[in-house]
Design brief:
Layout (H helix, E strand, L loop, with lengths): L1 H21 L12 E9 L4 E8 L3 H6 L10 E5 L7 E2 L7 E8 L3 E9 L13 E8 L11 E9 L2 E6 L3 E6 L2 E5 L3 E6 L5 E5 L4 E7 L4 E13 L5 E10 L2 E13 L8 E13 L4 E8 L7 E7 L10 E4 L7 E3 L3 E2 L1 E6 L1 E5 L4 E10 L2 E6 L2 E7 L11 E3 L7 E9 L2 E6 L17 E5 L8 E10 L38 H10 L5 H23 L2 H19 L6 H19 L1
Antiparallel strand pairs: 1-6, 1-33, 2-5, 3-6, 4-5, 7-29, 7-32, 8-26, 8-30, 9-10, 9-29, 10-11, 11-25, 12-24, 13-20, 14-19, 14-21, 15-18, 15-20, 15-24, 16-17, 16-19, 20-23, 21-22, 26-27, 27-28, 30-31
Helix pairs in contact: 1-4, 4-5, 5-6
Length: 578
């Protein structure tokens, strides 16, 4: 009777283990899939998280051979637990990109890619932007005005998520998820008298100012001209200050080719790479520096050194590339700083979400995953300008499912991934998007490769090698070592059982974890039945666990449930011996 109780408790605990480790069954459907590719993702260094990983797969050959349909609806990637993985097929000769949420140190993970059949699988097909993100040219139909809604779905990281320079943007940074509106010139000094300061190599010049409200700085104008023919790049950076001097790294920066300036004295405008938050009452420094130059070839920033009227800052300069600074009161450069008011805000987002921003009847609303996150009165209107839209640039969105703009209750722009160099505007308004594509891994220590690609339907298994498409390169060896993902193919019959589970749309962990636990329980009981001693029984159970962890890839934390059973058995026997 006691043995029956032990087996029963073991079965219950094993079931709980499999439930919590196998995860939620994927939303995709693979019952109609005809082919499967086995993908190995390897990490040769420390634990890596949130990695976009490329692998080689010939997209055009798959399309030509009808292994994938033209809409890519019959393709899906799953992890070993049967959960869907976000991915992007390679455009043209580009590699495919897949998402790896986490991979442990010096380990490998196994994934399955399914294709073929006439059934839409519902895979997590997504657009993985390159550094430049996706751009949409300015159009009259996309001007927001005072009645609009934008919606964005995908994976969010830090950065400038959605931006129309000087007009509207959504920024996700340490300050939170912020929606900001039309910009205006907030800080400026324009009455320069023609006195110059030469900017070259280590000679840096700057202007400080004090923020009079909390908002975002998005762009800047400088009043100056070039002298001679300077080469290289020039930089305008915004710094925090201490005791009136720039400190730390730039809060934001913009770059321009020095030779693009002319000898004409005028204001020239530049947008920062990403908006930076200004805090009311804090002093900041606007710094100009260049790659190189000499007395005959440089940039000249014009200032007023006689009777300047700018009261909230002054000139600062460095002669050693920013290592030390000198403060000059009574001098101010010609400059303009553009800021954008914050409309709505929320805590910083990380992970998969859907956000929506609306402006209607003088009020703005920010929704996160369908829940109202913030609202504010905003009686104004988003102004019109000729700048285009930029979405998902600078790594702000590792992958994107879709983006939409609705104006006056009518859908005016809608974009999602498609196998093309240009994304068609799904709203029908011809506001097509120009995407940049990720082609490299976001972690140099993490790589992926296809181990095999073959038919999983018996009716297709007779296809000869000559008939198969040339979709993958020569297969590399899988890295040696203990894997943190399940790989039961090392056991006799393990591959067949795993394939049967996957084909039946059952997460493999639902089978393999109970097999581990029940097997360990049986070993412990058998050894104890022969030896009648606790220590040999415990050693037998531990040996089984170590074998299972190494051979199948079960994580070593699974020693805990078996230890609980052993402790319970010891306590039970001590009680009986009293």
């Amino acid at each position: 009777m006691r043995k029956l109780r032990i087996l029963s408790s073991g079965a219950v605990l094993g079931t709980l283990v499999c439930i919590f480790t196998a995860g939620v069954i994927a939303a995709s459907t693979i019952t109609g899939a005809l082919y499967r590719a086995d993908i190995s993702v390897a990490n040769i260094s420390y634990t890596a998280t949130k990695v976009s990983v490329p692998f080689t797969f010939n997209t055009q050959s798959l399309l030509d051979g009808q292994y994938i349909n033209s809409s890519f609806s019959n393709v899906v990637i799953r992890d070993s637990a049967g959960q869907d993985i976000a991915f992007m097929p390679g455009q043209g000769i580009d590699p495919w990109i897949m998402w790896v949420e986490q991979i442990s140190q010096n380990s490998a993970l196994n994934y399955s890619l399914y294709t073929g059949g006439n059934t839409a699988m519902g895979g997590k097909l997504a657009y993985f932007p390159g550094t430049s993100g996706m751009t949409v040219a300015d159009a009259a139909s996309l001007e927001l005005g005072n009645n609009f809604e934008i919606e964005l779905s995908g994976y969010f990281e830090s950065g400038n998520i959605w931006n129309k320079s000087q007009v509207f943007g959504v920024l996700n940074d340490a300050s939170g998820l912020s929606v900001f509106g039309s910009s205006s010139i907030t800080y400026q000094y324009t009455s320069g008298t023609g006195v110059i300061e030469t900017v070259l190599t280590n000679n840096w010049e700057g202007q400080t100012f004090t923020a009079t409200s909390t908002n975002y700085v998005s762009g800047v104008d400088l009043y100056g001209a070039k002298y001679g023919n300077p080469t290289g790049n020039s930089y305008i950076a915004l710094y925090a200050t201490s005791a009136g001097f720039p400190i730390g790294s730039p809060l934001t920066v913009t770059t321009f080719v020095t030779s693009t300036w002319t000898s004409s004295l005028e204001f020239r405008h530049y947008d920062f790479n990403a908006p930076a938050v200004l805090t009311n009452g804090e002093k900041y420094a606007l710094i100009l520096y260049v790659d190189n130059g000499d007395s005959s070839n440089n940039i000249r920033w014009y200032k007023d050194d006689t009777s300047p009227t700018f009261a909230d800052g002054n000139r600062v300069y460095s002669t050693n590339g920013g290592s030390s600074w000198t403060n000059v009161s009574g001098e101010d450069f010609g400059f303009k700083i553009y800021t954008n008011p914050i409309i709505c805000s929320y805590s910083q987002l990380t992970g998969e979400h859907t956000i929506k921003v609306t402006l209607t009847a003088g009020n703005s609303y920010l929704y996160v995953d369908g829940v109202l996150a913030d609202s504010a009165a905003f009686a104004g209107s988003i102004t019109d300008n000729a700048n285009g839209w930029v979405i998902g640039a600078g790594g702000s969105m590792p992958y994107l499912y879709y983006a939409k703009i609705t104006v006056g209750g009518v859908l005016k722009g809608s974009w999602a991934w498609e196998y093309a160099a240009t994304f068609t505007d799904l709203s029908g308004n011809s506001n097509d998007a120009t995407p940049s594509f990720r082609t490299t891994t976001t972690d140099a220590d993490v790589s992926a490769s296809i181990k095999s690609y073959s038919a999983i339907s018996q009716s297709l298994s007779s296809i000869s090698d000559d008939d198969a498409p040339n979709v993958i390169p020569d297969m590399p060896e899988v890295p040696s070592g203990w894997f943190t993902d399940l790989h039961p193919e090392t056991l006799p019959g393990g591959t067949e059982i795993n394939n049967m589970l996957i084909d039946a749309d059952i997460p493999p962990g639902v089978f393999w974890y109970p097999m581990w636990f029940l097997g360990g329980t049986v070993v412990v009981m058998l050894v104890f039945g022969v030896s009648r001693k606790i220590l040999p029984a415990a050693m037998g159970g531990i040996s089984w666990d170590i074998f299972w962890c190494a051979a199948v890839g079960v994580d070593f934390w699974v020693l805990i449930p078996n230890s609980l059973v052993a402790i319970g058995e010891i306590a039970n026997r001590k009680k009986q011996s009293l």
